[in-house]
């Protein structure tokens, strides 16, 4: 966790309405910075095969936040690191309608959620799970508007946390909440901004939906066991231990369900699993022998949220014994699993346990410590201090530890080429150097993941990120993030 900054001498007793706000790295100072840096200092050599932009998002609130505030909620920053021919340029844009000025002028503030963005042909909707999305320039990172799809989706007042791209039909698959928490609105968007396949779903069991899986014919909304809080002094969402894990299935084209499937137009069905956890993020999904098959990350610790800032509704006395497990952080296991849903089965069918998958390589942040030194398991929320590459076939794990007083952020994989084998490429991630209050961007090669290929040395610190992604240069405009300033106005040129 970042060290608490001491006030100047004589200012120790001066009060401030600003306090440290929580992010995914623990309590941290707000930054609220935007700007650009051309040709950032690089230590080492960035390979030419790395050509694109590393986007990352972070919570960074425009106004002081209330107690029990989730770090996933609120205004924040989108940062972009564009790399081309070994050079890197950086832009940091602050997110929010008019940078949050209207709510500040009105004397009120309602947090809005921001998450990963997809800055491709859709120019560019920044997700907000409890408000409409924001129009966001993918090169300038400037917030240019609110509610990018306007009256085409007036039924939904929010935008999803993780919109997904269907490369087969070149559409963005997304969803949001309606006027009530129980209502979902799913739809797809073309590159031209046309909304299609809109489906309003009134759920009989509500909860947060963070990610989805989709196939050619089906959409699976992966629901978390959370409920809104109506009590003062509690978190806005509460983890309800009495709820099962829920998957809501809907046809991709709700007006024309798959022929012969037995589904009616605009029908949805709920499938459950006898656990109290969630698919956090989805991986692949497809159809096989009439079944929907999808994969994702699965925290195997029912009976509590692994987000420690959420309050918890205690287990009901008649709860099934199958839910009762030891959910302490040191006993938490996150697996990559595969679920099967038979869409011919009726509403409220209970699913079989998922299959735990083996994959060649896993890239992850870890807590790296001396095995002889006791370590507080709650550090998983704030002090992941190393990045590891695990070969699941051999069990070999290679660790890069940047040293003491460092905090590693979520790694992103960059393939070495379009036809590179699995796991062959580079890993890029941010490292917060907490002792000197600066952030570096580290690039590791997967052939030697214990030593950096290059380190981008920023002259500032950034907030801990929620998510990041890599966008290849082929998908972008080819423009620099930081244009070269014109020099013909400078007096010294006139004298030459």
Give a structural overview.
The chain has 496 residues and is mostly beta strands. Helix content is 2%, strand content 39%. The chain has a domain at 149-358. It has two helices and 35 strands. Strands 4, 30, 31, 32, 33 and 34 form a six-stranded antiparallel sheet that branches. The chain is globular and about 65 Å long. GO terms for molecular function: carotenoid dioxygenase activity; metal ion binding.
How would the blueprint of this fold be written?
Elements: E1 21-23, E2 26-28, E3 35-37, E4 42-44, E5 52-59, E6 76-84, E7 87-95, H1 101-105, E8 124-126, E9 134-136, E10 143-146, E11 164-166, E12 171-177, E13 183-190, E14 195-202, E15 209-214, E16 218-223, E17 226-228, E18 237-240, E19 245-251, E20 269-273, E21 282-288, E22 291-299, E23 311-313, E24 334-342, E25 349-350, E26 355-356, E27 361-366, E28 386-391, E29 397-400, E30 406-408, E31 412-415, E32 425-433, E33 438-445, E34 448-457, E35 465-472, H2 491-495
Parallel strand pairs: 18-23, 20-25
Antiparallel strand pairs: 1-2, 3-7, 4-34, 5-6, 5-35, 6-7, 8-9, 9-10, 11-12, 12-13, 13-14, 15-16, 16-19, 17-18, 19-20, 21-22, 22-24, 24-26, 27-28, 28-29, 30-32, 31-32, 32-33, 33-34
- Categorize the overall geometry: globular
Rg to the nearest angstrom?
23 Å
Main sheet properties: 6 strands, antiparallel
Name the structural class: mainly beta
Which blocks of ≥5 consecutive residues have pLDDT under 50? 97-130, 315-327, 372-381
Overall strand count: 35
Distance separating the two termini: 54 Å
Number of helices: 2
Overall mean pLDDT: 78
Proportion of residues in extended strands: 35-45%
What is the percent of helical residues? under 10%
